[in-house]
Amino acid sequence: MPGIPPNRTCLLRLGGFQAKPHRHAWPHLPPLIHLTDAARFPDPLPIAARLPRESLVVFRHYQTAGRRELAHRLATFCRSRGLHFLVAGDAALAVETHADGLHLPEWLARGPISRGWAWGRRKPGWLLTAAAHCEASLARAAHAGADAVLLAPVFPTASHPDAHALGIFRFATLARQTDVPVYGLGGINIGTVRQLRGTGAAGIAVVSALAEENDSLP
Q1: How far is it, in rounded angstroms, from Cα 188 to Cα 106?
Q2: CATH for 40
Q3: How does pLDDT run across 31-56, given as a tens digit for each residue?
Q4: Could you tell me the residue range of the domain that residue 40 belongs to?
Q5: Average pLDDT over every residue of 131-141
Q6: 1 Cβ contact partners less than 8 Å away, ≥ 6 residues apart
Q7: Three-state secondary structure string covering 61-109
Q8: DSSP assignment of 103-149, as one string?
Q9: Residue 1 falls within a domain, yes or no?
Q10: Count of alpha carbons within 13 Å of 183, Cβ hemisphere only?
């Protein structure tokens, strides 16, 4: 897989991810989603450069100085590299940067009346993804029309040490009982990704997987 080191490519192969029928017009959803992190990786472009084509990048720099300019830079870079670009929690910025869609943090995806879901009707070509951390939030996102849900944390993760991990069996149960594609996020690495095989996961969503100094997938 060009652009991604062999050990990271192995993560995708080991996962055995399964395509699930989905609601969006895209012929398929990518197996890899990268979420930017302003605190750990202020410049998201170096990591984006390591992603394979067709991967999805979610811009999560919420409070960064020069945020609009950075979003435009990243959006342009993603288009040049064949990557899909979503903005988290800011539909206006998504429109401004000609993003491929919108990602809704869990607090913004708490029901069909949320202003986030309204954009699914206003921008029918957009991909709408949502974060979920429990069965109720997953069900709400599916009912409200999410094209995919990022379910976390699957495993214990250093980035959120106090968060209660779902565990592989709970994750699999939730992923199988919904008709929306579900991505695993949290504590995924070269060792744990094997456990996602057969769980019904559509892929993995990661933050630091492609950082040169860190091979883990928190």
Answers
A1: 20
A2: 3.20.20.70
A3: 999 999 999 899 999 999 989 899 99
A4: 6-18+28-206
A5: 93
A6: 9, 12, 52
A7: CCCCCCHHHHHHHHHHHHHHCCCEEEEECCHHHHHHCCCCEEEECHHHC
A8: EE-GGG-SSTTSHHHHHHHH-TTSEEEEEESSHHHHHHHHHHT-SEE
A9: no
A10: 27
The domain tally of the chain equals 1
Is 23 domain-assigned?
Answer: no
> Is residue 34 assigned to a domain?
yes
Rounded Cα gap, residues 110 and 89, in angstroms: 13
**Is residue 180 assigned to a domain?**
yes
- Cis-peptide, bond into residue 42, ω within 30° of zero: no
User: For 58-94, how does the pLDDT look when each residue is reduced to its tens digit (9 = 90+)?
Assistant: 999 999 999 999 999 999 999 999 999 999 999 999 9
The pTM is what?
Answer: 0.86
